[in-house]
Each structure stands twice: as structure tokens, then as C-alpha cells.
Amino acid sequence: MKIIRSFYIFVFSLILLTSCGVNSHVMFKTADSEVITENIPISPDDAYRLAPDDKMSFSLYVENGKKVIDVSAGIGSQGSGSQQLTSGKLQYIVRHDGNVELPMLGLVHVAGLSTIEVQEKLSELYSVSYIDPFVQVEVTNRRVIVFPGSGGAAKVIYITNDNTTLMEAIALAGGITERGRAKVVKVMRQTDEGRKVYQIDLSTLAGLKYADMIVQSNDYVYIEPTKQLSREFLKEVTPIVSLITSAILVFSVFTTIK
Length: 258
Description:
By secondary structure, the protein is an alpha+beta fold. The chain has 2 domains: 32-46 and 142-225, Outer membrane lipoprotein wza domain like (Outer membrane lipoprotein wza fold like, Roll), CATH 3.10.560.10; 55-139, 2-Layer Sandwich (wza like fold), CATH 3.30.1950.10. It has helices at residues 2-19, 66-72, 115-126, 166-172, 208-211, 229-257, and strands spanning 55-61, 92-93, 99-102, 106-109, 134-139, 143-147, 155-158, 180-191, 194-200, 220-225. It has a 5-stranded mixed beta sheet, with helices on one face. β3 and β4 (106-109) form a beta hairpin. α1 packs antiparallel against α6.
């Protein structure tokens, strides 16, 4: 009897230990005081500014972009002076010191500048060698990471539109999964004070005003999954129960034989 009692105590302890792993995949657990639910910024206060490890491309035209107008109007341009000087397909990486190495110019400091400010800076620098340069700059690796509510469904969404909304980012990720809780949508954004966590309830029409929130580069959009305690517990415990049942059966056979 002591052996059987010890056996059941061991089984019970093993089940309790296993239950600690139930819903262990849930990330970014926060207290009410750690999230912002009111006065959530819909639009960014400032334009995106380049940072180290950003990738940028640029197109350079002379004569204030005369070639662009000629092509749009269907006018052939014969002079080489109005040709496009860069393809815009090459990508240049912003170094950790904030500089980027560009053709003819060498190292140019761009960290902390908006794309418009970079365009103006490059236009001024290239004006030494070209007549009235027209520059277009694009940051090519701006991205948002979306966790739509279940494991294995996370996606990296590249921002091609400066006004990409939270709803668009979720839609590009495939929408909220069956396990996702539309009531708990967390947008984690890097600021000068660290990452701020904005919690949005998209389960009702009241949260519609935040669906148009403009996402920014390096935002994390995390949709909390439903905590399916019973299913997760059974998933964890079933193999152990099967093993225990087999052990009890073998133990009973040997006891009967004796």
C-alpha cells in the first residue's frame, strides 16, 4: 500500500509540474499600470528619421527632374543632361556612426534626418557636379512585426506607405487568428523613454478610432491569444496519463502474478 500511495503522490506531483507549462507561449504579459489605453497617438508627431542599420535607395535626375516630366508627357528626351543618373535599385546601409557611403560623395551623415531632409542634403551636395539635381530617397527596410494571435503565424510587414494603419498591418499579416483576442491588441513602440505599450480594444466599434493608428517602423503589434486552459492542460497531460496507465497496468499484472 505504501508503494501504491507513493506512486500516486509522484503522479500527482508530475501533473502539477506539467501544468506550469500551460499557456507558457503567451508573450508580453503586462499589468494595467504598464499599458496606455487612453490618448493613444493616431498619427506620429514627426516624420520618420533614418537610424543606423537602415537601408536607403535614391534616384538622381538633373535639370530638376526634367526627364521625369518628359517621360510622363510622352516626350522623348535626346540630351544626356536630362537622363536618370542612378537606378534607385541599389541599397545603401546607414552605418552605426550614422554615415552612409554614396557614389561620388563618400560618407554622408544621414542619421536623425527625415527622408525629405536627406533629399535636400543630397541635392545640395550633388549640385557641385550636376545641374539642378533632383533627388528622391526611399528607406527600404522599414518594417512592423505582427503577432496575430497564434504561434507560427507571426509576420514581418514591410512598410511601403508612410500612412500604413494598424488595421492595414493586421490585414497584411492575414488578420486576427481564431485564437487571437481582438479585445487585447498591444502596439509596442520605441521612444526616447523606452518602449511604450499601447493597448487597444478592437472587439467593439468603440475601438474603431484606433484602427486608423499609423504604425511606425520597428513597431511590435501583438494580439494576445486566448488562454485555452483545458485544451492546453489536456495536451500536456495526455502523454503522461498514457504512460501512467501503462505503468499501472504492468504493476497490476506483476502484483497478480505474485
